[in-house]
Amino acid sequence: MPELLTRRRLDQPRPPHRFRLTFDPELFGQLSERIARFIGTGKFLFWMTVFVITWIAINLSAVGLQWDPYPFILLNLAFSTQASYAAPLILLAQNRQDDRDRVSLEEDRARAAQTKADTDYLARELAALRLAIGEVATRDYLRGELDRLREELSGLRSAAGRRRSRAARTPDDQA
């Protein structure tokens, strides 16, 4: 009977766990980038060198404090552990940088495509304006046309005047 009370029913969802560990990948990524940046600095190399020299000096000179005798197995274990964590953290930081570079590249491509489209549009507009300007009457063209019309008008007036004079002479000549 106690088995039946502790057995979970399959038709009901599980109750939420009390101690659920939440994992924020963004926060972990930021932390790994900070560590990777620090590992790649001269400051880290300086302090790591000071640490190793101190470790070896204490283990070689202080007989009572020799917690890691000559082959320095514990120091090698510490280096191996540090390297086993450093390499994946550096790779994670590089992957995050690659992701940022990819997003930046996509934005640059989109911006370049928009700029090209804008440039093409402006080129078409300029071509249309040039064609429109080519069809617009210029001052010189209008002056020439007006001069031609004046000449035709004066020619028509003189022709009309000659006709009138002929018409006026013709009745007199007939009488």
TrEMBL record:
UniProt name for this protein: DUF1003 domain-containing protein
Gene source species: Saccharopolyspora thermophila
Record-linked Pfam families: DUF1003 (PF06210)
InterPro entries recorded: DUF1003
Family annotation (PANTHER family): INTEGRAL MEMBRANE PROTEIN-RELATED, MEMBRANE PROTEIN
Record-annotated membrane-spanning stretches: 44-67, 73-93
Keyword check for tRNA processing: no
UniProt region (Disordered), positions on chain: 156-175
Keywords: Membrane, Transmembrane, Transmembrane helix
Keyword Transmembrane helix attributed: yes
